[in-house]
Write a structure and sequence with these properties.
There is one protein chain. By secondary structure, this protein is mainly alpha-helical. Helices cover about 95% and strands about 0% of the residues. It is built from one helix and no strands. The longest helix has about 120 residues.
């Protein structure tokens, strides 16, 4: 069946304007009815974002603490290594000094023995 209505330009324009007005009023009523839901969703998103930021800050704090612990452990390890190296150097120096003292004492003992032999020889000759 054909649409038997005779649509004039003014009828079509008024129908289009009524349709636009109906769409606009439907949009406005849908927006107003969704406002509490939108606010709730927005508050939920803000809470999620705040929780996410808090977790990120906590991870950053833990990471900084771990870095500080690692640096402290590295500094302690390095101090122990330096102390061990210093102790090793001191021990070598002490051993060298002891060896030098023994060499000097041995030289003095040999010289004293040589002088004694020389004195004994002189005593026998005279």
């Amino acid at each position: 069946m054909k649409n038997s209505r005779n649509n004039e330009l003014s009828d079509r324009r008024s129908a289009a304007a009524e349709a636009k007005a109906a769409l606009l009023s439907a949009y406005r009523s849908a927006k107003e009815s969704a406002e509490p839901t939108r606010l709730a969703k927005q508050a939920e998103r803000q809470a999620i974002a705040a929780a996410r930021e808090e977790r990120r800050a906590e991870r950053e704090r833990v990471k900084l603490e771990e870095q500080a612990r690692a640096q402290a452990a590295e500094a302690e390890r390095q101090a122990v290594a330096e102390a061990a190296a210093r102790a090793d150097v001191d021990a070598r120096e002490a051993a060298d000094k002891d060896r030098i003292a023994r060499v000097i004492a041995d030289e003095a003992a040999r010289k004293a023995a040589r002088d004694l032999r020389y004195a004994n020889r002189k005593a026998r000759k005279s």
